[in-house]
Write a structure and sequence with these properties.
alpha/beta; six-stranded mixed β-sheet; 6 strands
């Protein structure tokens, strides 16, 4: 199925987060906190980046929600079960209104059915485009990032922006390869 979105404003975005507290639940042992959001509209070159440590959580959320509200659709990899609810949780914690329902294009959850191949953004990208642009981070990089040090924030920004730019190319490739099901409206 090939989808064209003429005049549709698509916001591709990604969140990075860090563990925040222990839950005592084996299946979900920690709660998380957003440390970065990067977002880019399909009709613009600019990638908007919001980093915890440079901005407060309410500033990050207000800035991101403005972009969300301006978009006709949002896109990302695994955003329906992870990023969208993560943002919503942060909004609720801050006493802010939840995200509005939005047409969502999820390049993991909206894939056609197949097996025996990894559905990670990195692997799908390499399979379809023949090379890898994933901005890797070592455990030491993540430790610095989660501590919000100057070096860690730079690494987080590189990672989250790289994921958004890679995702935009991946979404186009998946669409051309007819590997995505029709997008659906995500509701909080």
């Amino acid at each position: 199925m090939k989808f064209k979105f003429p005049k549709t404003r698509i916001l591709t975005y990604d969140c990075e987060c860090r563990p925040l507290s222990y839950t005592g639940n084996v299946k979900a042992p920690t709660t998380d906190e957003i440390t970065a959001i990067a977002a880019k509209f399909n009709d613009e070159e600019e990638v908007h980046v919001f980093l915890l440590g440079e901005l407060t959580m309410p500033q990050i959320l207000r800035s991101f929600v403005e972009l969300w509200d301006e978009s006709d659709a949002v896109a990302g990899h695994y955003i329906k079960p992870f990023d969208n609810p993560m943002v919503n949780g942060m909004l609720l914690e801050q006493g802010m209104d939840p995200l509005q329902p939005k047409l969502s294009i999820d390049t993991k959850c909206d894939l056609i059915k197949f097996r025996s191949l990894s559905k990670s953004q990195q692997n799908l990208f390499q399979m379809l485009l023949g090379f890898d642009e994933k901005q890797g981070m070592s455990q030491m990089d993540w430790r610095e990032a989660n501590r919000l040090t100057h070096t860690g924030l730079a690494e987080t920004q590189r990672r989250v922006v790289g994921d958004v730019l890679q995702h935009e190319k991946l979404r186009r490739a998946l669409t051309e390869a007819k590997m995505l099901k029709p997008p659906k409206t995500w509701r909080p």
